[in-house]
Amino acid sequence: MLSSSDSKKLEQEAVSGSQRGDRNAFRYIVEAHSGLLFRTAYLIVDEPSFAEDAVQETFIRAWRNIRSFKPGTALRAWLLRILTNYLTSEQRRRQRKVRTTNLDSAVFVPDYTRNPYQLTADSESNSRIWGAVMGLSIEHRISIVLRYFGHLTIPEISTATGWREGTVKSRIHRALKEMRESDLGEQLGVAVNSGTVTVKGQGSRADAQ
C-alpha cells in the first residue's frame, strides 16, 4: 500500500503528464478519483445513470482544462468543484428528465464494479434518510453529502463548490433544519439546537451556524 507522500507524488506526476497531453497519465487521475466522484454524485442525485454521466462529464471537462490546474491546489477539491457545478446546472436544466450524454472518448469512462445501490445500507431507516435528502434543493443536498458523507471540512466544501464558508455553514444548517422539521429528525439522528448540529454517531458540530 502506498504511503500518503507516495500517492501525492504519483498524483503530481499524473497532473504534470496530463498537462503535457499524456492520456495515460490522465487515466491514473480517472482511476484514482472516479470512485469518490461517482459516490458523491450518486448520493446527491440518487440516479445511477445521471451520476455516471456526471462523472464522465467531469473528467472530460477536467481533461480540457487540466492546463489551468495550479500547483498546490487539491486535485480532489478541483474535481469536486467541476462535478458540483455540473450537477447544479444540469439538475436545473433537466427538471427530472434524464439526460443522455454522447461520449466520444472511452479513456474517460470509469469502470464501476460496485452496485451503486450498495453505497448505502438497505434499511428502511436509510430509505427515509434519502427521501429527506432528495427533498432538499440541489445546493442543500450537495452541502449535506459533502459534509456528512464525504466528511469534508467547511473550508474544503468551500473550495470544492466555490461558495463562501459562511454560505456553506448556512446551507448545512438550513438543510438539517428542514430535515428535522419534516418530522424525520429523530429517525435521522439529527438535531439542530441553537446553531449546534448533532449527528448520531458523530457528536456535536457547531460548524453549521
Q: Major sheet: order of its strands?
A: 1-2-3
From the spread of the alpha carbons, the general shape counts as globular
- What is the average per-residue confidence, as pLDDT, rounded to a whole number? 78
The helix/strand class is mainly alpha
Name the assembly state.
Answer: single chain
- CATH topology annotation of the largest domain: Rna Polymerase Sigma Factor, Chain: A
Write the CATH architecture name of the largest domain.
Orthogonal Bundle
Low-confidence stretches: 98-122, 190-199, 201-206
Strand portion: 5-15%
User: Termini, distance in Å?
Assistant: 39 Å
Count all strands and give the number: 3
CATH superfamily of the largest domain, by name, is RNA polymerase sigma factor, region 2, helix turn helix motif
Order of helices and strands: HHHHHHHHEEE
Number of helices: 8
CATH class descriptor of the largest domain: Mainly Alpha
Helix content: 55-70%
Largest sheet: 3 strands, antiparallel
Q: C-alpha Rg, in Å?
A: 18 Å
Structural topology:
Layout lengths: L3 H16 L3 H23 L2 H18 L9 H20 L29 H11 L3 H12 L4 H8 L3 H24 L1 E4 L2 E4 L3 E3 L4
Antiparallel strand pairs: 1-2, 2-3
Helix pairs in contact: 1-2, 2-3, 2-4, 2-6, 3-4, 4-7, 5-8, 6-8, 7-8
